[in-house]
Amino acid sequence: MKKPQIVIDTNVVVSAFRSQRGASYKLLMEIGNGKFDVNVSVPLVLEYEDAAKRLIGKTKLKKRDIDDVIDYICTEAKRWKIFYLWRPYLKDPKDDMVLELAVTSKSDFIVTYNKHDFQNIRTFGLQVVTPKEILKLIGVIK
Q: What is the extent of the structural domain holding 133?
């Protein structure tokens, strides 16, 4: 079976920064273990950074902690350029960015907590899953 290609939505990254107990954190800890490939673009990484840094002062996180995690994601991920050729498709332009990256990278899954925001994307050959669902699919949890 080929390695699943995934795009991780920003809400999953933020959730992982907020708590080390959930599926989001577990998913980020699995990056680089060879069970899946993460795909990113510059706009998505900038969104990760912006959203995560809004947690500074609200959590124990320091700017350096966030930078280190995002740098690691970038080191391990496949990087893609997106060209905004066919927007808008979804209600939220930030979700369009995630969808376009998933299509460009030929990903299998978009991992998000906002599954309802990605309705009607099966036409692109994509599935929308939560972090817990992808962890089950790759055999990390039962």
A: 5-137
Query: Long-range contacts for 13-21 (Cβ within 8 Å, ≥24 apart)?
Result: 13/48, 13/51, 13/52, 13/73, 14/51, 14/52, 14/55, 15/113, 15/131, 17/52, 17/55, 17/59, 17/61, 17/66, 17/69, 18/55, 18/59
In a domain? residue 142? no
The 10s digit of each residue's pLDDT in 44-65 is 999 999 999 999 999 999 999 9
Q: Is 46 inside a domain boundary? A: yes
- Whole-structure pTM value: 0.94
